[in-house]
Amino acid sequence: MSVKEATRVTAPARTAPAAGRPQRKRGRDGQWWIPWLFLAPALVLFVYFKFIPMAQAIGMSVQEVRPYLGNRWVGGANYAEILGDGGFRSAAWNTVVLAVGQTAGSMILGFCLALLVEGQTRKLSFIRSAAFLPVVVPLAVTAELWRIMYHPTGDGLINQVIGLVGLGPSGFINDPHTSLASIAVTGIWRGAPYDMMIFLAGLAGIDRGLYEAATVDGASTWKRIVHVTLPGLRPVFAILFVLAAVRGFRVFTEVFLLTNGGPNGSTEVVMTLIYKLGLEQSRLGVGSAGAVLLFAATLVLTVCVQLLRRRRSA
Asked: One Pfam family for this entry, by name (predicted)?
């Protein structure tokens, strides 16, 4: 018996599919609704507490909101009023400066922390958990702690520390010249650990063979970071830039709790201005117009970053 004949004898015969029996398709095409069933509670909450208020804000932005009297259509008058307000332009500038400072600071500090704590040892795991604590601490608690540390007298904690190197006491959040920078430092301290964790995930995806090849070629640590680490983290930088920028544009709680826009409007941002216009001055139409403008600016920034990413990857 030849090899071919033996193979034919020992190989199992393929049975033809029975007539009339439907073949099962791969996947779960018939159960497409199961993932949506799990997502339904969250989607309902998002629609009710986020998307419906967003639609109502867009509607109020073109109306004069008069409680119990009925709203009156004013068209673009609210937008013209808030765009022509010097306070809004100042708040927008403060928002941009604060967003740029917090975005750059948190990304740089988060990247440095990620390089320092990268590894698999237990000690590094503990250090990573400790460094991530500012993110999980409630923002109100964080703001109150920094307000205490920013005490403007010589007895303040930070003033005592800088006094050790011969620097005089600073007013920090009580000084118009340093208040915005002080809030930026608070935001960087809170946002850097979040960026650190995303950088760590990105570092884990870089091929270690590239580092070994660079080491064999005699590249220094700095050159390995510049020519291997940074190119490998380019998608992570793009994602973090969008997240940090949106976080900076929507800054509210720390400003509201630390300075409430003072002193003399030096830390007034768009979110605190919208809050004052809508809830303190009952100018809900003008405040809604400011909220729509902030949303549009955030959307344009996100779309531009995504287009740049696609153009570079193409």
From this structure: BPD_transp_1
| Residue 67, phi-psi category: left (phi > 0), alpha (psi -120 to 50), beta (remainder) | beta
- Contact at 8 Å (CB) between 169 and 152? yes
- Phi-psi domain of 283 (left: phi exceeds 0; alpha: psi -120 through 50; beta: other): beta
Query: Roughly how many angstroms between the first and final C-alpha of the chain, as a whole number?
Result: 59
User: In 3-state terms, what secondary structure has residue 287?
Assistant: helix
Question: Measured between alpha carbons, how far is 9 from 311 in angstroms, rounded to an integer?
Answer: 59
| 72 DSSP 8-state letter | E
How far is residue 23's CA from residue 197's CA, in Å, rounded to a whole number?
46
pLDDT digits (tens, 9 = 90+) for 87-136: 889 999 999 999 899 989 999 999 999 888 887 667 777 788 888 888 88
CA dist 228 and 237 (Å) reads: 14
**What's the whole-number mean pLDDT along residues 212-230?**
87
Q: How far is Cα 193 from Cα 265, in angstroms, rounded to an integer?
A: 30
Contacts by 221-226, CB closer than 8 A, 24 or more apart: 225/115
Cα 156 to chain center, whole Å?
Answer: 31
In this model, does residue 44 exceed pLDDT 90? yes
Asked if residue 263 has a cis previous peptide bond (ω within 30° of 0), the answer is: yes
| CA dihedral angle for residue 263, residue 266, residue 270, residue 274, rounded to 10 degrees | 30
pLDDT for 301 equals: 84
